Amino acid sequence: MPLRILVCALLAALAAPLQAADSEIQVLSVQTRDPALIARMGEKFGHLHVDTDKGQVTVEADAAQRTWLQAQGAVLRPEKVATELLQAQSSGRSLKSIPGFACYRTVEETQATVNALVAAHPELASQIDIGDTWDKVTAGGNPGYDLTVLKLTNNAIPGPKPKMFLMTAIHAREYTTAELNTRFAEWLVNNYGTDAEATWLLDNNEFHLLLQSNPDGRKQAETGLSWRKNVNTSYCGATSNSRGADLNRNYPFHWGAGGSSAAPCDETYRGPSAGSEPETQSVVNYVQSIFPDLRPDDTTTPAPDTTQGLFMDIHSFSQLVLWAWGDTTAVAPNGPGMEMIGRRMAWFNGYRPMQIIGLYPTTGTTADTAYGQLGVPGLSIELGTAFFENCASFEASTYPVNIAALRYGARILQAPYKLPFGPDTTQISATPDLVAIGENVRIEARVDDSRLNLTPQPQSGAPPVPATQTIASARAYVDSLPWSSGTAGEAMAASDGAFNSGSEAVQLDLSTGGLSNGRHLVYVQGVDSGSAAGAPNAVFVEVAPAAEIARLRGTVRDSQSAAPLAATLKIGSASVQSDAAGNYAKRLRGGSVDIQASAPGYMTERVSGLNLAGGSETVRDFSLSPNCSVFSDDVEGANPGWTAQSPWGVANNVAGNATKVWTDSPAGNYANNVNTSLTSPTLNLSGYEDAVLSFSHKCLTEAGYDFGIVEFSTNPGAATPSWSEIYRCSNLPSWQTQHIALPAGANNQPALKLRFRLTSDSGSAREGWSIDTIRLEAGGAACRASGDGIFADDFE
Q: In what helix (H) or strand (E) does residue 120 lie, and over which residues does it extend?
């Protein structure tokens, strides 16, 4: 976590704590906007977080590196909380045993996922051995690994097809990257046939995913070491933890010179020659085999705008979307096209888009080599929020926004230098999605040219980024991609009657009279006023004889009050929402179906094997019972068993709340570099399911640097309990109510504790985290049997 820096006058005071931990790696902050110093740090460390807004660089450093930094004139500030996390990581435990990190698959677990996908879906997935790691090609040491590419496409549809090559974990300690790539693969394969987007992407493209690009190094990281490079013992000593080459400085295009290090023990050691490492050679050879060479190896000739495909290398952490070049401020020949890709993707994840060199100079990198040698767009994403991002943050933020960015990248593979200049297609739907042959189906979508991250503006001398343009038209295409030969499509209308803005809702009543019995893909693509066609998307429309279509409808209500509920009904593989009156309706083909009805705060009801007859209507109503109270505290009475670590306490003077609340700083602002918590009594959830934690809170902390964190433990009696994060907040200045569904592993547990924890850096100290009206509710067999809470106290 990035932390604030002390001013130069405190340098002498900082010397003692720096020296006291010389044997440990520390996370440090350096306050600087000096590009020359940042460049030197980039060559020395490689793994930097550069906060250009605050003028601050965060880095891991051992004793020798701290001495080097001080010799550069840098003022150092230890980051206490981040250092504690780093040292816990370095305790020698395996990755899966580290509390809060169980969501990241090991090398072996990643390969097991590949094997499982290939075995379950051989029509979509295959694996390709593209080469060996350094350990595997070197006798006498560890056995090493194959470098395995997971190839995904619908094999029944012949190519050639546009290709995406996505590599991750080239730097071993960057845990989030391989997990994102693996989940992208799972999203594509597991949603094929049920999700229209995943289906058309696999039908018409190829995805070549190198999940673990440096498995030898990753295994070192999984022992608890902060490992970046490969494990080549020829560099920096056979047993040194600083041995190996930085694979992302070893690639051949513009290898060497500034932006990498010639010192074998440095984190950015580039190797003795370009492409010296077996891992590098394997990737270069494979990428050259799947992408044609469309430009000379110079810095001035562009690839044609008909180029297909995308090369991406995912790293962590800095929250950036980057594109070639990394060693010069000159705009690449296809720089405007790559910039548009980057700014479109950065709209989804909210990261800062920039040319790679905008971070600090780099040479011999993957993205520069892919673009420099072949002309395919070369981009990188720097994921996440911390050196060791916790699972809750990854699950809630990093994963969903970046899977959306990758999905956008997949939608532009046909023409990556052209499609990003046009509007994106979103919110596409078909109503109803099952129609009798001859009926009309309403196709609706939003065509949006504004999904473009314009911060920061392009560097001086670069072409300006096109502003949002007015949508000029949209068309729908049945079972044919918009660019397919001979495809005309049908014109769609602006839902408000006129195409006059940069984001338009569009619609079409599509006739199904000429469609065959079965499911069809309907694509929608928009065109802006500059005649640029954008990324399309698709929706399923299923057509059947009227006699085969069953209609299911009903209501969902509260079992006690009969009030209508806004519920989610899962009907077979489909989902539908009940409306404000509690009504729902769905068309399905006749047959047997399972239904599940759920609503927040209520026990889920399930019906199995409901028979639906084609050509007729079935009514099925649901009455949902409220969950039971497991724990309740409105903070108005005596402490029911909370353990309040100083300075946590009760206050009644927190702005915006007239009652008593728990707060981390009852006497005023919280302090810097704190890690303090409020922990619940032990709760018995045996027989309880679908537990939901709710609370009111105000989280007035320094945005992005100080956090309120909610955690739970299912082994609170252990000598060292394991805590899993389920929520975090930062800079929420007004009171709001939070509802959090506990993970499945927290349910039906005989011993559970909840914890509210504040962490801060050395920057701004603010009012802090205040919490009120804490409730834990759950359903399940125990709730149905008794309806009584396990632990309840109004404290009135």
A: helix 107-120
Q: 212: exposed, middle or buried (C-beta count within 10 Å: 0-12, 13-18, 19+)?
A: buried
| Residue 314, number of CB atoms within 10 A of its CB | 24
* Sequence-distant (≥ 6) Cβ neighbours of residue 609 within 8 angstroms: 592, 593, 594
Specify the pTM: 0.86
Average pLDDT by stretches of 10, the chain with 796 residues: 33 36 73 87 80 81 88 86 66 44 88 97 98 96 96 97 98 94 98 97 98 97 89 96 97 93 96 98 98 96 98 94 95 96 97 92 97 98 82 86 98 98 98 95 98 82 83 98 94 98 98 95 98 98 97 97 97 93 96 95 94 97 96 96 97 91 94 94 95 96 89 94 89 94 93 96 88 96 70 34
CATH architecture of 107-250+262-411: 3-Layer(aba) Sandwich (3.40)
φ/ψ of residue 310, rounded to 5? -155, 135
Same CATH topology for 107-250+262-411 and 546-624: the answer is no
What CATH number was assigned to the domain covering residues 628-786? 2.60.120.200
For 546-624, CATH number out of 2.60.40.1120, 3.50.50.60, 1.10.3720.10, 3.40.50.2300 equals 2.60.40.1120
Residue corresponding to tokens 């990190």: 101
State the burial class of residue 93 (Cβ atoms within 10 Å of its Cβ: 0-12, 13-18, 19+): middle
Query: Hey, which residues are catalytic here?
Result: 382
In Å, how far are 197, 428, 477, 751 from 435, measured between CA atoms? 20, 17, 18, 51
Q: Give 368-382 as a 3 state SS string.
A: HHHHHHHCCCEEEEE
Asked if CATH classification 3.40.50 holds for the domain at 8-89, the reply, yes or no, is no
Cα distances from 47 to residues 39, 52, 328, in angstroms, run 12, 16, 20
